[in-house]
Structures are given as C-alpha cells and as structure tokens.
Design goal:
25% strand
Length: 712
C-alpha cells in the first residue's frame, strides 16, 4: 500500500518487493489500534477490509462485514442519506460528510466521514477508503457556544415575541422576558420545570403528550414549522389565546423544541365581536338569518332532514308605526323569550328579519306533533306583555316547511316564509304547511311585479276603462265616468285588477300606478269636456285612490301638478277613498281631505258601509258623495233590512249635504227601487259595462247630442 498524491493505492503482486505477510499483519495491528474507523470498499460497494473501530461504530464485528454491501451494513435509511457523497467518490473525487448518527454502541454521535478514491497503478478505479472520526465532543462544544451566542443575541435584541424552549421531556430550558411578561412566571422559577405542569391546560395534556411521543417515535408531526392557534395557561390560571410556531433544533446533541408565541387575545376578542355582529341579532341576542342558514346547512348535510317554522308577526308594521320601533321590537323580543323558554332544548330560535322569527326543530315531527307545536306558538303569542307589564296579545302567521332530498337551506327558509305569507293572506293567527303550488304562485307574483314595473316604465299594456255614472233624478242622464285600470299583459292577456293590484300595493308600485291613472283620467276628461257642447255642466271623472297613495308625503303636490299639466277643472275631478283609508289615521286623513277640497277637488267615500260605517263621522268628513257598496244594492229588492239600511244611509247623507252613488246596479227593478229611495246617482251593468276610451267617447257625443236636441 502506498500514497500517490491524495489517493491511496492498494497493490497485490507476486513481486518480491510486495509487502510481506509480516508487514501486512503489522499494518492490520496498526489499523485495529486506531480510534479512527477505517474501511476499504470495492467498486462494487462491497467491503474488502475494515478495522475494529469501524465495526464498533456501525454495530457489527469487523470480520462479519467483509463481502457485505454498504447498504447492508449501514442500513437503507443511512445509506440513502449518504448516497450523494458515495456517488461523488465513485466518480473519482475525494469527499467528506458530517452528520449526527445513532450508533448502536455509543448512542447519538456526531461523525465526520472522509472518502478517498482508490486507483490501481494502471489508473483503473478500484473503490474507495472511508475514514470515520468521532467529533461529538467538538460538535457539542461548538453547539453550546452557538446556543449561548443565540440566547445572548435574543436577549440583546429584546424580541417582542414570546420564546419558550423545551427538551424531549417537556422541560423548559429557555423562557425569555416576553414570556415572563405574558405568562407571569419569573424565568429563574420556571426553568427546569415540566411545561405540562405550568403552561398546558389539563384538558389538553393528553393531546400534547400523545403528539410529542408520536413525533419522537415516528418523526411525523402536525405542528412543526407552521403557525397554529392554541390556549396556554397564565400563572393566575386564566387562559391566554396565542398564535405559535414550533421549530426543532439539535443543540449539544439534545433535541430541543422552540416555540415562538404571540398573544392574540385582543384579536380573538374582536373576532368574537365580529362573529356576534355577523351571526346574532343585536336587539334580541337571537341567532340571525345567516346563523340559522348555517345551522340548516349542517343539519341537512348530516341527515338531510330539517323542519323549519317561520313565525311572522301579523300587522307588525301597524304596531311599529303606531307605537314606535323600540316598542315593536320589545314585543318581538317578548315573544322570542316565551318561545325560547317553551321549546328549551327542542329547537333553535332565530330572528330572520325585523318581524319574522325562525324556529328550527331538533327532531323530525309527525303531523300531530307539528300541529301541537303550532298551537303552542299561537298560545304563547297570546301571552305577550308590553313594556308597562300589561297583557298585549300578538297574532302570528306560521309557515311550516320540511326539507326534501333536493332542498338547500336557502330554499327551505324561502318555502317556510312563503307558507307564512299564505297564512297571513288567510287572515293570520294560524299555521300553514308549505306546498309547491305556493312557490309557483309567488313566482308568478314576482313575474307580475317585474312586468308591471316594465309596463309602467314603457307605458305599454296599461289602459283605462270607463264605466258610466247616470243621474237617477233626471231620467238617467250621463253625469260622470269612473276610471278603472286594466292591464293587457303581452303573455297572459287581460289580467284582472284583483290579481295585480295587491302585488302593486305590496311592492310600492301602487303609487306609480295611481299617479298614472290620475293623469290619464284627467287628460281624458278634458277631451270629453271639449266634445260636450250641450251647455250642461261638464262630466266629472271619478278616480280611486289607494290608502298607500293617500299617505304619501307629496300626494297633494302630485294632484296639483296633474291638474295643472292636464288643464282639467278641479271641479270635474272626484277622488274616491275608502272609509278605512281615512279612518286608519283620522286626523291625518281628514286634514288631507280638507286640503284637497280647498283646491276645488270633489271627494267621495267609496264602498261606504263596509268599513268603519260610523254615521257619527259623516259630519266630520269634508266629502261630496257617499258611494254605497254593491252588497247593499244587490240585495235591495230581496232584503227589507238592506232596504232599511240603504234608506238610512241616503237620508243621513242628504242631511249632511252629500249626494249618494249606488254601484252594482244590474237590473231595472233595482234602479227603480233606488229612484224611490231618492238615490242620486248610479252605475252598473244595467246602464253600461266599463267601456274602452273610444266607446266612452261615442257615448259622450250621443249624450251631448240628445241634450242639445232637448234644449232645441
């Protein structure tokens, strides 16, 4: 064996100059006496020669290693880790490697490996030689110096982050000043203590121990080198929410785990407040709509079943308008408290909107149980008290909906609200089970709303029919027309007013409709005024007003603007309002009627006898006419009671200076009976059906000509 440059050359030959057996034995003794591990490995990666120290470092007898491969001796795991270095020496270059290795005999050691390629005299590569030095002591000294320097630097820098370091036994080996401030422990008192005893909540001890042991055994981890949120215990026992990252280091041969923590208690408190804002009603503390939808989604994902009740407080807007928002909300909160107590752990209660509660039942009830729940809700609503403590029962409309396989949370909530809407349309104070046909009806109403909006904007499809009003005291002479709104839908054809007017009222479109009708009717009245040259007073135009329009702040201004724009004489315009519209807010209603009368507009109470029907109010109402409801007129010749009531109404109206208009006159007998009762005016199919503008214009001309002939 001889040296050539940096390469070791092993030579075997019959040449007399080759080493003798004595010399080889002497070299062998020298190798075995060395503390350095040595091994000669062939190009096939099989051991040719090893010394005693090498065998001890790899945990095998030197004699048993000869002929084995490197992978067989070192094990697959270590072989894979050093394979890049072996590949380098196999290419003919010297290499070295330093690593912590678990030695079977000496434990965890830090070894330096030096690899030198072996080349024959003819230049052929003949494997390599490995020299292994145990430099654990040197490495530990370096690590301790480095660790001390890192700790010193950390203290000098005064990092605001909390730094806590533990060993594999969970004992605290570092605890910086930020940690002292956050957790309330002096550094000197806590170093050496088991972290589990001072910082870990008892409820989390099991998870901590299991995770640590699993990682130390397998190397698999879920928390290292990433930020996680957890709770750590303060010295006073309170919990502190922290954001932390854990890293592992090997210092002086010890495996240490360092946690960098930040106190996020304020942030979590803010998140909690934001969560409350996002998922809870601020007035009642109940879960809100989003919270309810979240619960519905979880329930439906779990078993696909859920039953939801929407509890809509009837006439809530009247309650709020009469007594104020705070009072109305307190009544809803009172009902919510009663329902919460009654259903306890059997359901989740939420506030869907300002006047609707949602009740998500925990169980899937049968029909009898569901009916019992509805009766309980109705009973509880009758037990509500006002803020003063007095009993003030509420009426509620309850919509019930159960999830199907295809349902989503949003759809289930929608269906329950649709059912509640139908319960309210039936008079309220009842429960209604959702049926798919209800959804179709709502979809149709939604379509009608949009199409009606388009018709108003495009001025297409809407038109006015005009029903004649005749003078019973003057042989049936034409005196007026009532303007009646019609809608020729492009797809559905003529839609009855009873179908689209409620939609307009519920969406606010009624205001636009009323103003369009008023403008069109006034314009038509001026056209007929120019046609009629008989010399008689001009025909007047009756226009119905909705209660919603009457309550609009700019209503009076809009009437004056229409009169000015169309040029109609205010005396020609007669606005019809119902008793309910005026008497819902008597002072406001009478004030508005006086203002209309002041600008010259005539007024009529429509459908008299079906609303408040209080004759004592007649003298207070600044109106010109009473329009008697058709229910009195059509029973006139069959019911003496109806005749007596009608005679009383006519006499009272005349005593107050009002004329009387009877609507719904369909026969000659009724017309004659009305004449005998001294009724002034009448309209109905007996005289004429509602006419198109063209047909009404013909009637106006014919009437004017007849009157002209009579004068002549």
């Amino acid at each position: 064996m001889m040296k050539e440059g940096d390469k070791t050359i092993m030579v075997q030959s019959d040449d007399p100059a080759s080493p003798s057996s004595f010399e080889c034995a002497w070299v062998r003794q020298l190798m075995d006496a060395s503390q350095m591990g040595m091994a000669l490995i062939g190009p096939d990666l099989r051991y040719r020669c090893v010394n005693r120290s090498y065998g001890e470092l790899v945990g095998a007898d030197a004699s048993t290693i000869i002929g084995l491969t490197v992978a067989e001796v070192l094990g697959e795991d270590l072989y894979i880790r050093i394979k890049p270095t072996i590949t380098e020496v196999l290419s003919g270059r010297a290499a070295h490697l330093e690593k912590w290795i678990d030695c079977p005999k000496y434990g965890r050691r830090y070894l330096r490996r030096i690899y030198t390629p072996n080349t024959l005299p003819n230049g052929v590569f003949d494997g390599y030689t490995t020299f292994i030095y145990d430099i654990t002591d040197l490495r530990q000294i370096k690590d301790e110096l480095a660790a001390n320097e890192e700790l010193r630097t950390a203290i000098i820098n005064g990092t605001p982050d909390v730094i806590i370091t533990i060993d594999t036994d969970s004992r605290i080996v570092e605890f910086n000043q930020a940690a002292e401030r956050l957790f309330g422990y002096p550094r000197e008192a806590i170093l050496g203590l088991n972290m589990e005893e001072v910082l870990i909540r008892p409820t989390r001890l099991g998870r901590h121990r299991e995770g640590m042991q699993h990682y130390l055994k397998t190397g698999e981890q879920a928390m290292l080198d990433r930020r996680v949120e957890t709770v750590i215990r303060h010295a006073n026992g309170e919990d502190i929410t922290v954001d932390l990252m854990i890293t592992e280091t090997n210092t002086t041969g010890r495996r240490l785990f360092t946690a960098s923590l930040r106190d996020i208690s304020e942030r979590k408190c803010m998140e909690s407040k934001l969560n409350d804002l996002a998922y809870y009603d601020q007035e009642t503390g109940l879960a809100n709509r989003q919270n309810l939808l979240r619960s519905l989604n979880e329930r439906m994902k779990t078993d696909g079943k859920a039953t939801l009740l929407s509890i809509d407080i009837d006439r809530f807007f009247n309650l709020r308008n009469s007594f104020g928002h705070e009072f109305a909300s307190s009544m809803l909160a009172e009902l919510a408290a009663l329902l919460t107590d009654h259903f306890a752990n059997n359901a989740q209660l939420a506030r869907i909107n300002d006047h609707v509660l949602g009740l998500l039942l925990n169980d899937e009830p049968d029909k009898a149980t569901l009916k019992a729940h509805v009766e309980s809700i109705l009973a509880q609503s009758r037990q509500t008290h006002s803020t003063t403590g007095s009993l003030m029962p509420l009426s509620v409309s309850i919509g019930m909906a159960s999830a199907t396989e295809e349902s989503t949370a949003e759809e289930l909530l929608r269906d329950s609200k649709i059912a509640a809407y139908h319960a309210r349309k039936l008079g309220g104070n009842r429960g209604v089970q959702f049926k798919p046909v209800m959804r179709e009806r709502i979809a149709w109403q939604t379509r009608i709303e949009q199409d009606l909006r388009d018709a108003l904007e495009e001025r297409s499809g809407l038109w006015l029919a005009y029903q004649p009003i005749v003078d019973l005291t003057n042989g049936g002479r034409l005196r007026a027309f009532e303007a009646l709104l019609r809608w020729n839908h492009p797809e559905y054809g003529n839609i009855p007013p009873a179908d689209f007017i409620p939609v307009a009222e519920s969406t606010g479109l009624i205001v636009m409709l009323d103003r369009w009708v008023l403008n069109e009717a006034c314009r038509q009245a001026t056209v007929w005024r120019d046609i009629d040259t008989s010399g008689h007073p001009p025909l007047f135009m009756c226009v119905n007003l909705s209660p919603i329009e009457l309550a609009e702040p700019d209503f009076l201004d809009s009437v004056e603007r229409t009169i000015a724009e169309t040029g109609i004489n205010p005396y020609q315009l007669k606005l019809e309002v119902t008793e309910g519209a005026v008497m819902a807010h008597p002072e406001r209603g009478i004030e508005m009627l006086n203002a209309l009368k002041k600008i010259g507009v005539r007024l009529a109470i429509d459908d008299f006898g079906t609303g408040y029907s209080s004759l004592s109010y007649l003298e207070k109402l600044p109106v010109n006419s009473l329009k008697v409801d058709r229910s009195f007129v059509q029973n006139l010749h069959q019911s003496s009671k109806s005749a007596a009531i009608l005679r009383l109404i006519i006499e009272a109206a005349h005593a107050c200076g009002f004329d009387v208009i009877a609507e719904g006159v369909e026969t000659e007998d009724i017309a004659q009976h009305l004449t005998k009762l001294s009724c002034d005016l009448a309209q109905g199919y007996h005289f004429a059906r509602p006419l198109t503008p063209e047909a009404a214009s013909v009637l106006v001309r014919e009437s004017a000509n007849r009157q002209a002939d009579l004068v002549a």
